[in-house]
Amino acid sequence: MDTARRIAVVGPGISRLATAWLLSQRHTVTLYEDENSLGGHSNTVDVTLDGTSHPVDTGFRVYNTRT
Predict the structure, then answer these.
(1) Start-to-end CA span in the chain (Å)
(2) Which residues lie below 8 Å from residue 45, measured CB to CB, with a gap of 6+?
(3) 20 to 30 A from 44, CA-CA: which of 3, 35, 59, 67?
(4) What are phi and psi of 15, to 5 degrees?
């Protein structure tokens, strides 16, 4: 019996991307995002040093005083 499912992941921030990757090992996963990039509020930029580009994780792009 085939137990593979078709699963939709909406708004793939970093946690949902991890979940989608894990689910994709056994299921067909489709990501839906209205932004031009994935990852939600996480942010990585490329920094060039001595002619070599390095990805640098800058943390989250959100700041609020409550949390």
Answers:
(1) 47
(2) 55, 56, 58
(3) 67
(4) -70, -40
